[in-house]
Amino acid sequence: MPTFGVILAAAGQSSRFRDANYKKPFAPLAGRAVWLHSAEKFLERDDVKQVVIVVSPEDREAFVDKFGANLAFMGVTLAEGGAERADSVRHGLEKLGPAIDMVAIHDAARPCVAPAWIDKVFEVGAKTGAAILATPVVSTLKKVGPDGTIQATVDRTGLWEAQTPQVFARAVLEKAFASRGASRFTDEAQLVESIGQKVTVVQGSPINLKITSREDLRFAEQALKALPKPNLSGPAHPFANDDMWR
To answer: Where along the chain do its domains lie?
Structure first.
């Protein structure tokens, strides 16, 4: 059985969340921080041997003050983010122990991912080397100009909306980062595609929503009620780094 490491991306600026007190991964949701809901979905799995959360340097001190006990109890490693998402994920990748075979990147602000969806994307990722959750686009798409008027109706045939987890063989992801150069990528799948690796799409669900605005918290709270509750027995993750505080 391959061993999985999970990188939780939580280093964004949350500019659309519009909350003076919280960035979206750290906001309270059903009595717990959003990122904790996300982390628990992976910590309960036998095939996940390490979880890394990446936060921005400006949030590190406050994050450790508030969640240091959670990190220690759950065995979660802390990494600092970079200038762009790809930099942050690379920093998380560098924290993974050498025995990790597969890497899953998940938005810390997607707390409603169900175990069955993780099962499937992990299985397909292990078989193919690269897989992501996604949903087919079902709404009519409009291209809108700077003046706010419709310029064209976009054919949605074959269009899917990417989600996370995005799962890659570690060697594939490391090769993609080594070849990155100065290019900018909006997700890890695009980065991996750039080296010619095919990425398989696994159908997810709209319930696996990414919290963007405060209104999304209400939808997420209802979605969480329909998901199985995590069964955590403690922080025994053997590849968790001893230098999580550095």
So the answer is: 4-226
